[in-house]
Write the structure tokens for this entry.
Amino acid sequence: MKPHLSLPRTLTTLALATLMTACAGPGPKPDSELQSAESAIKQAEASDARQFQPVLLNEAMNKVADARALIDEEQYTQARRLLEQAEVDAQLAGARSETEKAQRAVAEINNNIENLRQQLNSNQQ
């Protein structure tokens, strides 16, 4: 290979490598994902997840804390994944809490209906 052709190829290769390294950086800071996860946690807490689904809610909160540490270390891709998981965990905790509350309300209504039936039956006798 001729030496004068080798230099442009080397420079082109070096430029492409630099460009690829720049593109593979940490990406944008996951601020919106952090806000979404925190919002989901607040909604879960409003749904009484602390009472009905404390383990799942704590997992979501721990993932947000871990993601904050990763953000401080500029590991945005890993932080983004944890924040997405935290948001889903919090949403699940909220949904399960609402389901538990609804099931309890149905059980109470059924209990009241049964009590009324017993009262009616005793009054008829």
Q: What stands out?
A: Residues 76-124 form the longest helix (49 residues). The chain has a mean pLDDT of 88. Residues 27-97 form one domain. The helical segments are 3-23, 31-46, 49-52, 54-72, 76-124.
